[in-house]
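Practice problem: predict the structure.
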Amino acid sequence: MSEKISEIAKVYHKEHGNCAVSVTYGYWRAQGKSEEEALALAMEVKQFSGGRAPDGTCGALHAAKLLAPQDAAKLVEIFQQGAKGCTRCQEIRPNAVIPCNRCVELAGEALDSLKK
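Answer:
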């Protein structure tokens, strides 16, 4: 599948919400999983949205780190560049640093960058 994780995740998030699920769904769809398979895998991280990931990390970023743990530092670096240095939901959402849909897209872009 040639679609980017970021594009799939952003569209899914716009329609369904849940940042962590959206990034995970986008990742697995981009890997060629069916909608059903991708959704089943994505639902395993639904509890991490809304600042409920460890240390209050953005759920989109946390999902990306779970999907590519060996590249966690690079994912964080890329995410921070787009999120004005922030990684925690409570920094991003209440202060309107960037919209949640942009967090989802940014985490997807970080994952997409690993394929290059």
